[in-house]
Write a structure and sequence with these properties.
Number of helices: 10
Radius of gyration: 20 Å
Shape: globular
Helix content: 40-55%
Distance between the termini: 22 Å
CATH topology of the largest domain: Butyryl-CoA Dehydrogenase, subunit A, domain 3
CATH architecture of the largest domain: Up-down Bundle
Largest sheet: 7 strands, mixed
Length: about 325
């Protein structure tokens, strides 16, 4: 396998980085509009539906840049949902999930790990009703709800319009919800294999963004220890500091290798479960590495107005989405 980016992927990375730098990346609504106008929200939409027809690796390229700026917004969920529809949905569903408006995914269920089979029940609707299926169940941690949502259920993958739900908020301050489905009308996108693919795409997306978050925090921390002086010497001149920042770098490299391997295997149609589980484990370690970055900043690292706070909140949120280290270790053990 070759993890070097091709010309299209390098151009996509440059476009995303330049746009995020220009927009300063912290106004979610303004950022969404800029991403949509640049075509970045539709990169995984098939060409016949107005998109670029790109795949998991290109999704990871964009989301890693998003993470490197600790930028908010529904791009992650939108790219995952449009890519899943591209791989499994009908032409009508692909046009519906076109990237023009935000979309989300509902995979997690209360009290159950991300990798557990869904217990949300899908029932066929009577033939005289327009809806093909009804869904009954609860989905937790649905970020950026309110529009179209791809939902995993016992009979496969389904598309619904999110029902009203009490607002919740993540550690980043972004909106989330626990969605209760009570015979909610739904369209079937695909069978259990499509539901499993959505979970894998979601894991690849989250780990790609976590990789960018750690890279951005590492850059910020490296610049700080090079210029911050203590006892007349830059912090980077102290051996204990260099060892700690080296540990952060190694954590980032380990995450990168597993994440790119998982995305590449998904793109190639190869089994990717083990690679993604390892990437998810390193994403949890990346969240822990942010404590080191905070420590090396001293009191500045605790200032909520300083950029490092955004990276810390993002890293914790992303690790939470994947269920934590224990869940990944259980999955890796089960796959061995």
């Amino acid at each position: 396998m070759d993890f070097n980016l091709d010309e299209t992927q390098r151009d996509l990375r440059t476009l995303t980085a330049e746009l995020l730098a220009r927009e300063d990346g912290q106004d979610a609504a303004r950022l969404w509009d800029a991403l949509r106008e640049a075509g970045l929200t539709a990169i995984c939409v098939p060409e016949h539906a107005g998109g670029a027809g790109l795949g998991p690796v290109e999704m990871a390229v964009v989301l890693r840049e998003l993470g490197a700026r600790a930028a908010p917004g529904p791009l992650r969920e939108t790219l995952v949902s449009t890519l899943a529809a591209s791989r499994h949905g009908s032409p009508g569903q692909q046009r519906r999930l076109s990237g023009e408006t935000p979309a989300s995914v509902a995979i997690r269920e209360p009290g159950r790990p991300l990798t557990a089979p869904p217990v949300t029940i899908a029932e066929r609707a009577p033939a005289d009703l327009a809806a093909g299926w009804f869904l009954t169940g609860r989905k937790s941690g649905v970020t950026h709800p309110g529009g179209d949502v791809l939902v995993t259920a016992d009979q496969g993958l389904f598309l619904v319009h999110a029902p009203p739900a009490a607002p919740e908020f993540t550690s980043t301050g972004e909106p989330a919800a626990t969605i209760t489905l009570e015979r909610c009308p739904a369209e079937r996108v695909g069978g259990p294999e499509a539901a499993g693919d959505l979970r894998r795409l979601f894991t690849a997306a989250v780990t790609a963004q976590a990789s960018g978050v750690l890279a951005g925090a590492l850059e910020l921390t490296t610049a700080h220890i090079r210029t911050r002086k203590q006892f007349g010497r830059a912090l980077a001149e102290f051996q204990a500091v260099t060892m700690q920042i080296a540990d952060v770098y190694i954590t980032g490299r380990a995450l990168d290798v597993a994440m790119w391997s998982g995305a590449w295997r998904l793109d190639a149609g190869l089994p990717a479960e083990e690679d993604l589980a390892v990437a998810a484990l390193h994403a949890d370690e990346a969240a822990r590495a942010l404590y080191t970055c905070q420590h090396l900043h001293g009191g500045l690292g605790l200032d909520v107005t300083y950029p490092l706070h955004r990276y810390f909140a993002q890293a914790k949120h992303l690790a939470h989405l994947l269920g934590g280290a224990d869940a990944q270790l259980d999955l890796i053990g089960g796959l061995a």
